[in-house]
Amino acid sequence: EANSWHYKSLKPSERKLVDDAVEAYGVTPEQLASHYSYRDIVNAAVFQSFEDMAVHTFKREQGGLFE
């Protein structure tokens, strides 16, 4: 399908970016496509990293308010 973000419709160079990103979580795109449990694990890990960044950024921006 044209202009789709689905993995199978991506260009090879775009697939490589996805492959590299999910490899950091120890999974493959095929595993993510076929098992919700893998997606849940990766989603949780990504969400946690966002939470960690937000807390770190908040504390840094406060300029010692909570120190």
Give structural notes:
The chain is an all-alpha fold and 67 residues long. Helix content is 66%, strand content 0%. It is built from 3 helices and no strands. It has helices spanning 12-23, 29-34, 36-61. The radius of gyration is 17 Å and the shape is globular. The model has no long low-confidence stretch (mean pLDDT 81).
Number of strands: 0
Element-level helix/strand string = HHH
Mean pLDDT: 81
Helix content: 55-70%
Content of β-strand: under 5%
Distance between the termini: 53 Å
Gyration radius, in Å: 17 Å
Query: What oligomeric arrangement do these chains adopt?
Result: single chain
Query: What would you call the structural class?
Result: mainly alpha
Task: Describe the structure concisely for a colleague.
The chain has 67 residues and is an all-alpha fold. 66% of the residues lie in helices and 0% in strands. It contains three helices and no strands.
Topology:
Layout: H1 12-23, H2 29-34, H3 36-61
What characteristics describe this protein?
67 residues; single chain; 66% helix; 0% strand; mainly alpha; 3 helices
